[in-house]
């Protein structure tokens, strides 16, 4: 019996090719971890910004860490999501911060627009598959959930069952929330807000796991080139996106987190209708949007929906999409074709 589990750290995605070689600004580089993933930062600062070159990378990490600890993590009992999950079934109205309120509003909208393909109430199914533990190579003790276990969990899944008014949340019994599909994108939005206040910064490219923020420019007229991983061979790139200015790019792929048992790959993007990893011939979806939360939510939603419905959904949010199927064929929206280079 062959068992293999893997998380691909997105070093290849982090690979950023410079469009122009002679930058006038001093790039500051920093690689660290936060939110359980690798954070890579390249900041282009004005000359003589020594103090900022130390402060900015630290502050970016602090922002990500605080978001995870105070709002998003379901593994931290004091976070807003941790507290909401702990209250499930108690009938308590849990107050939510403005940040979480706006995140939940967008998530619920994408759930409705994707007809439930995207669903943050999948927490118990994610726990049942034990996706968080798919980090090592040795998976000899991994047990695939039974159909009955999955069926039982699914009874409590459904975004429309979540009671959410403007500033309060009531989680029904048996339901658990999981914002794993949007956390990195939300982080990009918060980082962008911080960068916008920095007068000494001309441009930056920051990667939070599989989600990337390009901000401003290195120098006048320069482009950001963001590599797209080949999901069929993650040591290769399919090409890159050539972008000017500020963008968010998120990828959902079956190579990011998975366990392989007897030649079958079980990956981390779940079909809410079946409770099993999505099996629709898609291997990755990349979304380009001005908004991080949207890029991250849509990459997951579009993966579940597949090419036709996924493209329609992405375009309805003004986002561009790139799908790769298991034969290696690419499908792109028109706007994505304009920026994709081989
Ligand atoms: P991403 O890599 O952004 O596509 O997010 C995948 C993560 O989102 C998984 O590890 C789960 O925690 C969660 N997830 C899986 N399937 C779904 C889904 N259909 N809708 C919302 N969240 C999901
Ligand atoms: Mg996502």
What does this structure look like?
The structure is a single chain. The protein has helices at 11-14, 50-72, 80-86, 98-113, 123-129, 147-154, 183-196, 292-305, 307-316, 334-339; strands at 3-7, 16-18, 26-34, 37-45, 94-95, 163-164, 168-170, 201-208, 211-216, 224-229, 237-243, 247-253, 257-261, 264-267, 282-289, 320-325, 330-332, 340-341. 32% of the residues lie in helices and 28% in strands. It starts with a strand and ends with a strand. With 342 residues, the protein is an alpha+beta fold. The strands form 4 sheets. Strands 3-4-8-9-12-15-16-17 form an 8-stranded antiparallel β-sheet. The model is unreliable at 1-24 (pLDDT under 50). The protein is built from 10 helices and 18 strands. The longest helix has 23 residues, at 50-72. Bound molecules: adenosine monophosphate and magnesium ion (MG). The site of magnesium ion has 6 residues, from β12 and α8. Magnesium ion binds next to β12 and α8.
